[in-house]
Please model this.
Amino acid sequence: MSILPILLHPDPRLKKPAEPVSEVTPDLALLARDMLSTMYDAPGIGLAAPQVGRLVRLIVMDCEKNPELDPKPMVLFNPQVTWSSDERNVYEEGCLSIPDQFADVERAARVRVAWMDETGAAREDEFGGLWATCVQHEIDHLDGKLFIDYLKPLRRQMITRKMVKMKRELERTRA
Model:
């Protein structure tokens, strides 16, 4: 498994909608495994293919944070919310493409999601709590939307300016 480079905001690829997957090819199955390795290494609880420069509708996630329990890695191709609760939750969200920046985002407390798994089989399940927040956050990535897009413009601009500065400093240290 490879650790893939994660794109940092602002990057135009993070704002583009991803293409649906017609079938799970060996290349896409490998991408999913590499994305899981990358997510765990970061460390994070979710990662979308556009964050590693691949504009396909693929997300991976694992919101099992209890070290006493086994990890619960999930691979979702073409995930789609088919139902969402009227009840709302607010979680402090972060993003591997926007490191060290966090903000409260309100989302549906429960969602039902349909997707294709790594074998190509159709799946559907209902998610609540952190899992619901994570799956909605990652699906947003597939639509070219970032969690900061839910924030007020001034706060969003402030985070973007910090990210531009951070990227500039990173490039200087690499040169």
Observations:
- The chain has three helices and seven strands.
- Helices lie at 26-41, 129-142, 153-174.
- The domain at 12-174 is CATH 3.90.45.10 (Peptide Deformylase).
